[in-house]
Specification:
The complex is a heterodimer of chains A (384) and B (219). Chain A contains nine helices and 14 strands. Chain A is of the alpha/beta class and 384 residues long. Chain A has two domains: 255 residues, Rossmann fold; 99 residues, Rna Polymerase Sigma Factor, Chain: A (Orthogonal Bundle). In chain A, strands 1-4-8-5-11-12-13-14 form an eight-stranded mixed beta sheet, sandwiched between helices. In chain A, helix 3 runs antiparallel to helix 4. The mean pLDDT of chain A is 95. By secondary structure, chain B is of the alpha/beta class. Helices cover 32% and strands 27% of the residues of chain B. Chain B is built from eight helices and nine strands. In chain B, the strands form two sheets. A seven-stranded mixed beta sheet of chain B has the order 5-4-3-6-7-9-8, with helices on both faces. A two-stranded antiparallel ribbon of chain B has the order 1-2. In chain B, helix 2 links the parallel strand 3 and strand 4. In chain B, helix 1 packs across helix 2. The chains are: A alpha/beta (384), B alpha/beta (219). At the A-B interface, strand 13, helix 8, strand 14 and helix 9 of A face helix 3 and strand 5 of B. Chain A: It catalyses: L-homoserine + acetyl-CoA = O-acetyl-L-homoserine + CoA.
Chain lengths: 384, 219
């Protein structure tokens, strides 16, 4: 962690480029717009079996294949595949790297452009405009149109992905037949914003961050970014999960010596931090955490969350996990009640799990059964 | 204990879950016209919802307090939320449904009168079934033993029964009159859900009917 880490290698991501760009909520237009994406399964002739997966804060489009940077399995391979809940034999699955991300979509790592879309020969860095969850969704809409899809059978995602799902349903209700916001909320809470701010402060305080211009001398603010990841990682786990995985065990010692003792939980967090900086851009982290903090779907609709969904024909599957304290069940229940108030068709289950927020990524058979059943029911109804 | 009602215990809460309610549900389904919008409160694994969707083209949704059953229903592709009659009805808009169903649950809710009021606010019709505490066997047991009756339907000790608001058929008629609900149809059934022949006399039904089924609308 102490050695300087070079910016991670360029990977040739699959991309759709839109020269006319995208008008952002902040008033700026960013051009060209690049959306990096991956697809799995086959689009049927009627183009009616497309399901968009929205990734979380530090996720990316490599949902169900080996990651080109880390060499690790896709982040949702337990859900996406033949015969799995997001069945690649039945659905055409799409996942796009979010606007502001660092896996090939337009973001702080990509070359800065001027108002005419001309490249300026250096990255955006902290000049990258503030984007919103709705901007991310608009970029995904462009990709869907580019792929010839007018209406998505489903939009599915957890955490920040769930925020995008809600924004999709609110912004493009006729383009979403089924929506599955998972382990998420209709706004980012004060506590969530507070944790994000700790992460951002860690990045800002790393001397290698250099006001966001760290690329100029080929460094990355690895210390700051890894601390941000360590803090965030705690929020993704439950107290029970930490206790079960690590307890008070020491690394390589049976008892405290009061010298160089390292608890296993410390060692684990350091490892999480150090691997993260090899695949994620610090300015992207700043941009995306801000987008999440800005998110407040009710505020976008006059303070009334139900108004965001009034008259919707979209079918909803809301799911939370009992030990998730980052996006607790109460947030999902508030969302369900707003959907009920809007007379929407909604299913809701809280999955019993001690794995915390991360549960949506892990092996949770009840969750997989419910999500798969919901989507299959919607597909049956559409004759997919 | 009848085979159609079994207690389940989950997270400390004791609750009755219908296992084999097909005849009972069929009577309810008969009251619901094709294409209706329906909310089934305490829908269990969604048997009635599945029937109404498949056979009657209904837009049928459910609320179930037991998470395992709610998950099972959602996994079957039904629009079910985990929730309960006492706390979740207030969030639905007025007149959202043609029919709101509450089967064999009224006696177990915290505030039955408020639940009924909510049902007839969000639904144009309410269908309510409940076990009749006025049945002759219960009366006889109370008189002859001086203790709380124990029958196939009322089979839990008084200190652990979830059925905290038992009522009789005549009590229910009184509540409907008090709150101005119109009883469009009613019938008494036996524990297997078969119709019993006392519909002309509430007095006799209250003595011999084990279960009651009411179709109500706002007055």
């Amino acid at each position: 962690m102490s050695a300087p880490i070079a910016p991670f290698p360029q990977v040739d991501h699959q991309r759709a480029v839109f020269p006319d760009g995208l008008a952002l909520d902040c008033g700026m237009t960013i051009a060209p717009l690049a959306v990096a994406y991956r697809t799995y399964g086959r689009l049927n002739a009627a183009r009616s079996n497309a399901v968009l997966i929205c990734h979380a804060l530090t996720g990316d489009q490599y949902v169900a294949e080996t990651h080109p940077l880390t060499g690790r399995a896709g982040w949702w391979e337990n859900i996406v595949g033949p015969g799995r809940p997001l069945d690649t034999d039945r659905y055409f699955l799409i996942c796009a790297n979010v606007l502001g991300g660092c896996m090939g979509s337009t973001g702080p790592r990509e070359e800065k452009t001027d108002a005419a879309g001309r490249g300026l020969g250096r990255p955006w860095g902290t000049d990258f405009p503030n984007v919103t969850i709705r901007d991310m969704v608009r970029a995904q809409k462009r990709l869907a149109e580019h792929l010839g899809i007018e209406r998505l059978l489903g939009v599915v995602g957890g955490s920040m992905g769930g925020m995008q799902v809600l924004e999709w349903a609110a912004t493009y209700p006729d383009a979403v037949f089924a929506a599955a916001p998972i382990a998420t909320a209709a706004h980012h809470s004060a506590q969530n914003i507070a944790f994000h701010e700790v992460g951002r402060a860690a990045i800002h305080s790393d001397p290698d961050w250099r006001g966001g211009r760290y690329w100029e001398d080929g460094r990355v603010p690895a210390k700051g970014l890894s601390v941000a990841r360590m803090v965030a990682h705690i929020t993704y786990l439950s107290e029970q999960a930490l206790t079960r995985k690590f307890g008070r065990r020491l690394r390589g010692a049976a008892a405290l010596t009061f010298l160089e003792d390292v608890f296993e939980v410390e060692s684990y967090l350091r490892y999480q931090g150090s691997t993260f900086v090899r695949r994620f851009d610090a300015n992207s982290y700043l941009t995306i955490t801000r987008a999440m903090d800005y998110f407040d779907l009710a505020a976008e609709h006059g303070g009334d969350l139900a108004a965001a969904f009034r008259g919707t024909k979209t079918r909803f599957f809301v799911s939370s996990f009992s030990s998730d304290w980052l996006f607790p069940t109460a947030e999902s229940r508030a969302l369900v009640r707003a959907l009920n108030a809007a007379a929407a068709n909604v299913s809701f289950v809280e999955i019993e799990s001690d794995k915390g927020h991360d549960a949506f990524l892990l092996e949770e058979p009840d969750f997989h059964r419910a999500l798969g059943g919901f989507l299959a029911g919607c597909a049956d109804r559409l004759g997919v | 204990m009848p085979d159609d009602i079994r207690p389940t215990e989950r997270r400390g809460a004791i609750r009755y879950v219908a296992k084999n309610m097909r005849l009972d549900l069929r009577l309810i389904a008969e009251m619901i016209p094709r294409g209706a919008t329906v909310l089934d409160i305490g829908c269990g694994d969604g048997a009635l919802l599945a029937h109404l969707t498949a056979e009657k083209g209904a837009d049928a949704r459910g609320i179930e307090i037991d998470m395992a059953q709610a998950t099972q229903a959602v996994a079957a592709g039904l629009a079910v939320i985990q929730g309960d009659a006492d706390h979740d009805l207030a969030f639905y808009p007025d007149g959202a449904f043609d029919y709101v169903v509450l089967s064999r649950t009224l006696q177990a809710v915290e505030r039955p009168r408020e639940v009924l009021r909510q049902m007839l606010r969000i639904g144009r019709h309410a269908i309510v079934s409940f076990p009749n505490f006025g049945h002759w066997l219960l009366r006889w047991q109370l008189v002859s033993t001086g203790r709380m009756p124990m029958t196939e339907t009322w089979h839990r000790e008084w200190y652990e029964t979830p059925n905290i608001h038992p009522c009789t058929i005549r009590d229910f008629f009184d509540l409907c009159a008090l709150d101005g609900y119109v009883v469009e149809r009613w019938l008494a059934v036996d524990d297997r859900g078969l119709k019993a022949p006392w519909t002309r006399s509430p007095w006799l039904a209250n003595l011999f009917g084990e279960q009651a089924l009411f179709l109500l609308r706002r007055g």
